[in-house]
Structure formats: structure tokens, C-alpha cells
Known about the structure:
- This protein is an alpha/beta fold.
- The chain has 6 helices and 4 strands, in the order H-H-E-H-E-H-E-H-E-H.
- A 4-stranded parallel β-sheet has the order 2-1-3-4, sandwiched between helices.
- Helix 3 (48-54) links the parallel strand 1 (41-44) and strand 2 (61-62).
- The longest helix has 11 residues, at 99-109.
- The N and C termini lie far apart (56 Å).
- 28% of the residues are buried.
Amino acid sequence: xxxxxxxxxxxxxxLLERVRAGYQRIEARxxxxxxxxxxxxxxxxxxxxxxxxxxxxxxxxxIERNELEWRLDPRGSHRVPEATGHGLRVVVICNEGYASSxxxxxxxxxxxxxxxxxxxxxxxWRTQGLPVEPVTG
Length: 137
């Protein structure tokens, strides 16, 4: 017998609701303020075409979704220098705030218990008039 309860297939809306119940999401202005105080690491997981089209958040670390866990695991051999410990407050940002929720839940499984995601994603950040700059180089 297993201690794990079988829940059966789940739709994406139910899955999002379940993972989001496991942490407190953050609004764009609060994320901007926390990053400005050095209290949060903003991580942009959007793919290159979206960054090129819409720009980037100044100071945000760009890590595409398929590399996120490897780059932010404080114990990993492929981590970025910013991955200093499991207490790091990471704010994951996708385009509209859906994929980032699943990414934040995955970071929780790695022990990054303060990981969260941005409500509304990059599009909400931009709508709020927060800093955005074009991709250079």
C-alpha cells in the first residue's frame, strides 16, 4: 500500500489552483519594490521571441523555463551565482502568469520555499508602467 493518495487526471485550471494554494503570489508593484530593496530576485522565464518583442525588466535574471531548476538549485553544479541558498526569494515571471505558477511550484519542490510568481506576468508588469527596456545585443 502507498501513502500517496491517487487523485487521477487533473485539468490545468485545477492544477493551477492547487499549486497556487501552496504559496503567496506577488503583485507587480510589490515585486518591483522588493527587487529594488534587494529582497527578491526577479527571474524572467519567457522565451526569446517574447523578450525581443516586448522587452525585458531591468535587473531581472533571464533563465528560460527548461533550465530554471538547474540554474536556481543552490546545490546544483549548473547554478547561477545568484542561487545562494534555499531561503532566496525568487519571483518567477512568465508572459501572463500561468507558466510561472507551475515553475514556482517546481522550485518549492527543490526546497526554495520562498519562491513565488508574478500575478499577471510580464504583461501586468508593463501595464502597471513599471520599468521595461528593449533587448540589446
